[in-house]
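Cross-posted from the bioinformatics board.
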Amino acid sequence: MSFENVRWEEIWEASKDTLSMTVWSLAFTIVIGFILGLILFLTSRRQLLEQSIVYSVLSFVVNIIRSVPFVILMITIMPFTKLITGTTFGVAGTIPPLIVAAAPFFARLVETALREVDRGVIEAAVAMGASKWDIVSRVLLREARPGLLAAVTVTAVTLVSYTAMSGVIGGGGLGDLALRYGYQRFQTDVMLVTVVLLIVLVQLLQTAGDLLVRRYSRK
Amino acid sequence: MMQEGLKLIHLESITKKYRVGSTSVDAVTDISLTVRKGEIFGIIGHSGAGKSTLLRCINLLERPSSGTVNVGGVDLTKLTDRQLQKERRKIGMIFQHFNLLSMATVRENIAFPLKLAKLSGTEIKNRVDELLKLVGLEGHGDKYPAQLSGGQKQRVGIARALANNPDVLLCDEATSALDPQTTNAILSLILDINQKLGITVVLITHEMQVIRSICDRVAVIDDGQIVELGDVIDVFLKPQHKVTQDFVDEVSDSAGDLGQLVKARSGRVFRVHFVGELTYEPILYNAVKKTSVQFAILQGTISRMKQTPYGELIVELIGPDAEIGGIIDRLKQDGLNVEELT
C-alpha cells in the first residue's frame, strides 16, 4: 500500500489536537470526577457522612449521564458547550462534552476504589482521633492510591476513544481525520495511519498507568 | 493483685441497639462496668455476645443508644466531635487484624497518631525510634506491613497505639489472628507495657488462655449482659455461670469425664485447690503422714494465673472416715479449698 493520500503535517496537527483534548479533558475529569466519587463514597451507607438522600440523587444523575451514548450526549449538550467555550467545534468545543461524559464514569471508579480501602484502617484512624478531613487526606487518598491510578488510566483510555468519536461533530483530532478522509473519501491509508496512532497512544497510556500502579502497590 | 484502686473507666447503664430491618436488636443491654487504674481487665464472651460492641463503646467507635461513658473523669458522650478526637488520643487501641496503613512504612504507621497530634518532625522521629525499640522492631522501620509477620504487625499496632502516651489501651481480640507462640509473645509485651508504663488495659477475647495469662479481673459476657465479674482467680476456680464454666473447661487439663472417674473409685474423692505459694508446699503429704489414710492422685494441674501459681488436684483418700475428716479440716486450715466429689 502506498501512503499517497497521507499528509503528514495534517496528521501531526491532528495528533496534537487529540493529545490536547485528552490531556485537558482528563485534567478536568479527574478533579470533578474525584470530588463526585468522594461524595458518593462518603455519603453511602455506613460511611463517614452517610446521607442516603444525597447519595441517591447523585447516584441517579450519574447513572443517567452514563447511560446516554457519547455521540448523543455530545449533541444534546451543545448549547451548554457553546455557553462555556463559545463554540461547539474544534478542540475547545469538544472538551466540555468529554468532561461531562467522563466525569461520572471516573466518579464511579473512584467510589469503587475508595470502597476497597479496609474499613478497619478507617476505624483505627477514628480511634486515634483523626478528623473526617484527616481520614480523607491521610487514609483514603493514600490507601486507595493504586486503585485511583488504575481508574485514571482506564478513564484516559476511554477519553482517547471519545475524542475520536467527537470527529462526528467536527471535533478535530485523529478521529476527525479518519472520518473525513478515511470514511468519507475512501482514503484507507489515512484511516490506517490514524488508527495505528490511536492504538499507539492507548498502549502508551495503559503501560504508563500499569507501571504507576505497580510502583505504588504494597500488597 | 490490685484491690480497690482508682477508677479510670466507668460505663453506666450502656445499651446499644441496632436496627435490623424494622426490628431493633440489643447488642448490649444495660451494662455497667468499672475499670480500675492500672489493671488489666478482660472481657470474655462468644462471638456475637456483644463484647466487641462494649469495647467500642469505651472510645465511642460505637455510640451507645443510652448510658454514659466516663474515661479519666470525662463523660465522652457529652463532647463535641473535636473534643472527642482529642480525648481519643489518650485511648490507644489495637485490633485483631492490625488495621495498619498498607501503603505506609512501619515508621509512617507509628508516626500517624503523632502527626494527628501535630508534633514536629524531630519530635516524631525521636518518639518513633523509642517506640520501635519498646516493641522490639528496631531495623524494621522502613518495611511495609506486607513484609512483616503477624506478630510483627501487631507490634507495630501496639507501638502506634502507645505513641501519644495513652492512659488506656483497648485490645480488640489482639491475639486471635496469631499462632500460640506469637500470642504468648504479644501477651507478655502487653503485660510488660502495663507494668512498666502503668497503662490500664481493657481486652476482649474468646480465649480463656488470654484471660488466665495476663488479666487481673474478668467480666464474662453473654447475650449482651455481664453474667459474671470478679478477680480472675476467683472466676477461674469457682465459675458460677454455665458460660463461664464452659470457658474454664476449655483450658482445664482434665482428662476425660470426672463423674465417671469418681464413680469407678472405691474411696472418697476430693477436689483440692491451692493458690499462691501454697502451691509448692508439701501440704497434702504433711496432712496425711501421721494417719493411716492413703491417697491416690487421680488428676492434677499446676499452673500459673498471671504471676500467681495455682493448682488443682483430684485426690482419692482411702481410710477411716474420722481420719479423712481430720485431714480435710487440716487442709482447710492451711488455706486450701476442698470440695468432696463423691
